[in-house]
Specification:
Distance between the termini: 37 Å
Structural class: alpha/beta
Shape: globular
Largest sheet: 5 strands, parallel
Oligomer: single chain
Radius of gyration: 14 Å
Number of strands: 5
Length: 151
């Protein structure tokens, strides 16, 4: 069993398969994880859980994740302006990623092809966690056409 961490990771997504995969990775590595799936739960999670890192699914709303990212950066307490954000991109669109980088994201991954170990390394890097702990996540088959679950 991995050593327990006090790091809080907020997952913002409405896609159940993605949430389950990320929870397996995050909880398996000993982090605390919280899930928000709409504007109300995002606001509440930010205030109550004080995340050390946010994983934002860019397809969280019908118009994409940018309104959510902009709100996190500008509307809430200033501490969230500096909270590391890793985005989950549908297809790795360079325009989308470039725009997100300008809004201060720290990293990204492509939902259909991510590898659990890579996600864990990104989380460790951006939370300042230098521990070397193998993830306890279940084997993962890359998700194809995950966005179909949310329609």
């Amino acid at each position: 069993m991995p050593e327990s961490s006090t790091k809080n990771i907020l997952i913002i997504s409405r896609e159940q398969r993605l949430v389950e995969a990320l929870l397996s990775i995050i909880l398996g590595a000993g982090y605390h994880a919280f899930v928000a799936h709409d504007i109300d739960t995002i606001s509440s999670a930010l205030r109550e859980q004080d995340p050390d890192l946010i994983v934002l699914d860019m397809s969280i709303t019908d118009v994409g994740g940018f309104p959510v990212l902009e709100e996190i950066r500008m509307k809430y307490d200033l501490k969230f302006a500096n909270t590391p954000v890793i985005i989950a991109s549908e297809g790795g669109d360079l325009v989308e990623i470039g725009r997100a980088l300008k809004l201060g994201i720290k990293d990204y991954f492509i939902k259909s092809t991510f590898i659990p170990q890579q996600i864990l390394l990104k989380i460790k890097k951006h939370t300042g966690d230098n521990s070397v702990v193998a993830p306890q996540a279940k084997p993962f088959v890359p998700i194809s056409s995950i966005s179909d679950d949310s329609k």
